[in-house]
Write a structure and sequence with these properties.
With about 350 residues, the protein is α+β, with helices and mostly antiparallel strands. The chain folds into 2 domains: about 170 residues, no CATH class; about 180 residues, Histidine kinase-like ATPase, C-terminal domain (Heat Shock Protein 90, 2-Layer Sandwich), CATH 3.30.565.10. It has 12 helices and 7 strands. The two termini are about 25 Å apart.
Length: about 350
């Protein structure tokens, strides 16, 4: 079942159904144990408690066997309508009380030679036993319903987890077609200009980028240093496209490099910076990736600064694009309200800050 959940599959209901037997057996043993202790204690008060101890123990064992038979019957009739179950519970209580009362009378009265008013004694024992088995049957039914509710809750949780897994995988595997188109178009242009060495470098970087991206589990956490290394693979591709317009500055304190982050969570943000700043500007753009620890949270900042002092084109709408929506959705699905994404224009570019709880190795 764990392997199915890992790939977002929901196991069939029969594989997730809990068995009623463990809780039912425990409940039966507790009820009959209570019966044995109270009967023995009352007998001790009456000064003959030890006299019938062995017979009482045998009677209790017979009662446990009848109770287990009730579990079998109730399990076979689980799908019956409620009104039919109510009738069944009453009938079972009366029927099971017959052999139990007879066995109890045989051991405690007949073998002891106490045959006075035996019919009245039998009827009184049957009446008490019927009420006792009614209580036991209700306990068994309660255990069944509790088990059913737990199974249903586990299945609902499994469905929710599977849906979240599929959502995360879908978000993580969304490939920006414009990025791939631009790279291949740049390769074609370099080949046309006889800059085959740069074209080969770009293709090698592209292969390394996709090899790394496709081997990382989209649901796994990776270290911050691995995340930065993955972003540098992408940046290396773009630096071939924009050799004179893209500068990179990485500011990651050594004590934060081993912290765990969602895999490739920075990828859409870095792509945004290249698309909206580097590609649309004629001046040099410095792309900075900064990590800071702030009150139990990790803050990752991607900032682009244009050397000519002009703000990014389209900055006002940059925070609503698909890439940032995917980042928000991934963080919300993973961390809920403990994570945030803030994208704001600056005087010389744009800045995006994502924060989420610190994840230690």
């Amino acid at each position: 079942m764990d392997d199915e959940m890992k790939f977002g599959l929901i196991p069939p209901p029969e594989r997730m159904k809990r068995s009623v037997w463990p809780p039912a057996i425990i409940a039966i043993l507790l009820v009959w144990g209570f019966y044995f202790v109270t009967k023995t204690a009352i007998g001790l008060v009456l000064a003959d408690g030890w006299r019938y101890l062995d017979q009482r123990f045998v009677v209790m064992a017979f009662g446990i066997a009848l109770s287990l038979l009730i579990v079998v019957i109730m399990e076979k009739t689980w799908d019956w309508p409620v009104w039919a179950k109510i009738i069944l519970i009453i009938v079972l209580s009366c029927v099971m009380a017959v052999p139990y009362a007879a066995f109890n009378w045989l051991l405690l009265f007949y073998l002891e030679g106490d045959l006075d008013q035996w019919l009245l004694t039998m009827l009184a024992s049957w009446s008490q036993s019927a009420h006792w088995f009614l209580s036991i049957t209700m306990v068994i039914v309660a255990a069944q319903y509790a088990t059913s509710l737990l199974s249903r809750e586990e299945r609902m949780n499994a469905m929710e987890s599977a849906a979240r897994t599929m959502e995360l995988r879908a978000l993580r595997y969304q490939v920006n077609p414009h990025f791939l188109f631009n790279v291949l178009n740049s390769v074609a242009a370099l080949v046309s200009d006889n800059e085959r060495e740069r074209a080969q470098t770009m293709l090698s970087n592209l292969a390394a980028y996709y090899r790394n991206s496709l081997t990382i589990d989209p649901l796994a956490d990776i270290s911050l240093s691995e995340e930065i290394a993955a972003q540098q693979l992408y940046i290396n591709i773009e630096k071939v496209r924009f050799p004179d317009r893209l500068e990179v500055a990485i500011d990651i304190p050594a004590e934060l490099k081993d912290l765990r982050v969602p895999s490739l969570i920075l990828q859409p943000i870095v792509e945004n910076s290249v698309k909206h700043s580097v590609a649309s500007s004629s001046s040099t753009v410095t792309l900075s990736i900064i990590a800071r620890k702030e009150e139990g949270s990790l803050a990752l900042t991607v900032r682009d600064v244009l050397d000519d002092g002009d703000a990014r084109k389209g900055a006002a709408s940059a925070g609503t694009n698909t890439g940032l929506r995917n980042v928000r959705a991934r963080l919300r699905s993973r961390f809920g309200d403990d994570a945030s994404v803030r994208a704001t224009p600056t005087a010389t570019g744009h800045e995006t800050v994502i924060t989420f709880p610190v994840q230690f190795p």
